[in-house]
Structures are given as structure tokens and as C-alpha cells.
Amino acid sequence: MIRFRFVMASFLVAVAVFFVRPARASAATMYFSPSSGSYAVGQTISVSVKVNTEGQAINAAEGTVVFPNNLLQFKDVSKSGSIFSFWTVEPAGSTGSGRVTFSGGVPNPGFRGSSGTVIRITFAVKTTGQADLNLTGARVLANDGQGTDILSGQGGASYLLTAATAAPTNTTKTTTPSLPLPVITSPEFPDQTKWYKGSAVTFQWNSTGAVSASSFGVHALAVNPNTVLGASYAFDQTSSTVPDEVPEPNTGSVTEKIPADGVWYFHIRFLYSGGWSKTASYRIQRDTTPPEPFTITLAYEAGGSSFDPIVQVDAVDKTSGIAHTELVLDQEPAYSVTTPYKLHLTKAGSHHISITLADQAGNSQSSELSFDVHGYPSPTITSVTSPIILLDTLVVHGTAQPGDTVSLYLSGTYLGQVTLGGKASGGESSGAQGVTVSAPWVFVSDQVTRPGTYRLTATATSSDNQVSGASQSKTVRITGTLILLGGHPIATFAAIPLALVTVATLLVAIFGVLVRMFLALRHLHARSTQADQAIRKLRFRILKTRMSDDQIETSLEKIEEDLGKKPPPIV
Is residue 351 left, alpha or beta, with left meaning phi > 0 and alpha meaning psi from -120 to 50? Predict the structure, then answer.
């Protein structure tokens, strides 16, 4: 119920700002002030929960402060001086629960600053120890119209609780200065307020002036009072542990395996010649487990359309909590959201969303959902010329809503579009909620396409950019032969007669050449036959008249002269 009220309040605040797409928001941090200090039993601690927006305007924040109820007693929570002017969850707390909850907001233009007070809590110190305050379930929402969670970090607080100071007497008592405390760092867990994934941790501390273990005994009495003789340390999940008084060599570092996820503490104190120092503690937070598997559901507002579904997830991370939610819609780039999140779709048909949740340590869990949107009506293709010959005109007839822009596709390839005049008005509407008003449209295209069988579809885009699903397809068959010259079409089915004439001309030319060759061969054969007959006649005359040699030579020359004459023309 608290989360629902917080989301509703954020939505009301967002209505007051411009509706814009979610932008990549800046980072904000929530922290305690003061974050440390020393307090005696019986004293009160006044702690402020503050927010640093890092230059980004915010309009809401929520969270729960967790405190050790065995060490601190809840006294009061105040809204005085808060940056928020209204509260969806009134700040309240109790010692029994060890928690203080709050959820508030501020109207447009929101708050922007580095030290904005959210609430102020007052505790009473019950007993000695180390009291740690932590924030859980914290969120800071940007004033961007979408309620984007921009919280990137949340600080903790640690207070040293000491015994009550005795009332002063007339007796003067000499006190010794406090012995220096160890200073602890960790390379794997450098920030005590953040969560990490490591399975082991190294703690390092200052060991300047340390005396080796062999120096214990006589030499220990002669060293400087601030020289560290040894150290005692412990590693557990209790914030107030005091290590025992068994000294170990002061090596300056130690590596510990982390048994399980959760919050762990390293405690160390130094042994000086004057005794043991107070305990210094270092907090680490480890989370190696991703958020639990979750499902995505869609909800719809009363009176809303299927183009505006509300995405809901039931997300749980038991250790560090959900820090970041990322959504991917269809093929668009991923962007950060805060759930519940309202989608603003413009296209009917099938859609797919994927949501990835990341916890404070960066572990992630994803889930997907496919769904259909039945909203804006598709156009209708009533007729199409088919088959058509290449380079001929494609004519398509159909109907759609007045004012629509109809886009046509040939087997997925965009052909073009046509816009209808007019606009549906009054009681006329589209879809399932009213009477569908249709208007005719005609699309004409002479776009060149290769021969084949294609699937023609159309979509409609309304004047307010709602896009329908694809219409029922029509089959288009294109026939013909495509002739290309330099990559450009120069002929189609209509050029086939020209091609046939060209082929016929080539055949006639070849036939003419063959006829001339045949006649030339026949003439050569006739001349050869004539020469043979003349030679036979000459032989006969030689044998019959016994011609002289001169006469025979003259006859042969005559035959050769006759054969060398220009042949008669070929008919």
C-alpha cells in the first residue's frame, strides 16, 4: 500500500510538468548528517536525512532508516525545515521495529541542491556500543515528468556510544590522553556505504611505530607510549564487537574469506605500553546473489487504450535491494525506468519488452514478455492489377480512415504512400469503441521490380501518429524479361518483338552469306568441269590429227587464256 501511494503521488507531481521522454538523469545521493560522532549514555542524537541532487531537479523521495534498537531509543521525527511540502507516507518510527519510514514530494519545479533536509530524527542513547544507521528501499525521483529514479548512492552513519560521564567533584583527577585509534581501509571494499560482489576481503591499517612480537616483555616498557606493541582483531556480523586482549603481530593487513552475503564488520584495536586503544570498526557489504526471478505483467487504466499499457514487475532482492531497472521495447535502445511504468505505443501489432533488474552490487536478473496491441484499424486492399508486365503501372485500390496516411509494401519493401483527406469527427471513431468510418484511396506506382510473385500489404498512420498493424495481403505477379544496360533497365516484355526482329535479321544475313558461298563453289565446280572437257577435246584432236608441237602448245595456251577470263556474273 505504501509503495502504491508513493507511486500515485509521484504521478500527480509529474502531471504538473511537461510530458517529455525520459532523459538520462544525473546521479543523486541520500545521506545522514552528522554521519559520525561520540555520544554518552543518556544523551540524545539529532540526525538529519539529507539529499544531494547533483544539479538535477527532484520532486519526490522515500526510504526507511534502520537503527539498532538495542543501543538507541527512537524519540521523535520532525518535518520542520524539510524540502518537501506534502507526504504520501507520514514520517514515523518506533523503537520496537528499529525503523523510521518516510515518503514525500514537492510540486514543480521541484528541489535542486546539495544539502536538502528531508526529515530530522532524534534518538536517545540507551547503552554503550557502536550504533550504525542505514537506509533501505531509498529512492529519489527526478522532476522529469516520468519519475525517473536517479539515486546512485546512499550513505550510512556510525556513532560511538560511551558510558555516562560521572558528575565532577572537588577532587582533581589527572586523565591520560586517548590512545590513537587504528585507521582501516580495504582495496576490495573501498566505500563502506556501497555493496560489492567479492568473496574475500583484505583489511589494511596503519602500523607506524609497531614493535615486533619478540619485543613483548622487557622491551615493551622502554618504548614510546604511542608505539604499537600489537593488535587484536575480529571479523563478524556484529557492529559492536570488541576484540579480545590477546595480542597478535601487527602485520598491517589481513585477508578474510567472506562466509555469506550480508553486512560484515572488521574490528581492531592496538596494544600500547599504556594499555589497549578503543576499537575501530570497518563495515563491508557483500551481495553476490542476483534479484529473484520475476514476471512482467501488463495492466490498463480505466478508459485507457491498449496503446498505453502499464508495465508492472514484482521484483525482490533480499540482500542489497533493487537499484536499477532497465527496459528494452522492441528494437529500441534500452532506457532506465521506475515501475510501474506506462508505455506509450504508436503501432498496433506484436510487441516485445525485456526488463533487467540490477541490485546495489550490480547483480542482474532479466525477464521478457511478448504481447499484441489491437487498437488502430488497418487499411483494406480491395483490388490490385495482377499480373502486370515490367515497367507497366501498378494500381492498388483500398479503404482506410479519413486523414490516414497509407503506406504500401511489396514483400516488405516500401513502395510509397498516399494520404487521405478529411478527418473523422463527432460520434465517429475507429476501432472497437465506435463506428469505423472508411474512405477510398488509390495508389499508383511504376516502380521497376524484378519478375516474380510478391505479397502486397499496407499500414495506416493516423493524424496523431498511431500506426496500425499490416493489412491482409494481396498477391501480385509480375511477368516479363528485364534487360539491363549499365545497370539501368532499357527493355521489358514489350521489347521481345524487337529482339525477335533482330534475331531474324541476323539469321537472314547469315543465310545470305551461306548462299553466296554456295554459288561461288558451284561456279568453281563448273569452271573446273569446262577445263576438263577442253583438255579431253585437245587430247582427242592430238590423237586424230597428229598436231605439231607448236600447235599443241598454242592450243594449251588458248585453253589457259580461256580459263583465265573473268567469269560471267552470278545470277
Answer: beta
Q: Is 132 part of a structural domain of the chain?
A: yes
Last residue of a domain, one of 119, 143, 166: 166
| Within-domain flag for 369 | yes
- Decide if 327 contacts 386 (C-beta within 8 A): no
Same domain? For 475 and 559 the reply is no
Q: Tell me the three state secondary structure of residue 561.
A: helix
Cis-peptide into 291, omega within 30 deg: no
Query: pLDDT tens digits for 4-53?
Result: 455 455 554 444 433 334 444 458 999 998 888 888 888 889 999 999 98
- Is residue 330 domain-shared with residue 439, that is, in the same domain? no
Domain boundary, last residue among 356, 373, 390: 373
Q: Which grid coordinates belong to 89?
A: 507516507
Cell numbers representing residue 391 in the block: 515497367
Flag whether pLDDT at 424 surpasses 50.
Answer: no
From CA 143, how far away is CA 140, in angstroms rounded? 10
Quote the cell numbers at residue 399. Answer: 479503404
Contact 96, 69 (CB under 8 A): yes
Distance CA 193, CA 134 (A): 8
- Strands 388-389 and 413-419 turn out to be unpaired
Helix or strand (DSSP H, E) at 498:
helix 496-545
- Domain match, 411 and 545 both: no
- Give a yes or no: residue 505 inside a domain: yes
- Neighbour-count burial of 330, counting CB atoms closer than 10 A to its CB (0-12 exposed, 13-18 middle, 19+ buried): exposed
361 shares a domain with 386: no
CB 405 within 8 A of CB 440: no
| Residues 305, 289: Cα–Cα separation, whole Å | 38
- Cα(40)–Cα(160) distance, integer angstroms: 8
Q: How far apart are CA 337 and CA 149, in angstroms?
A: 7
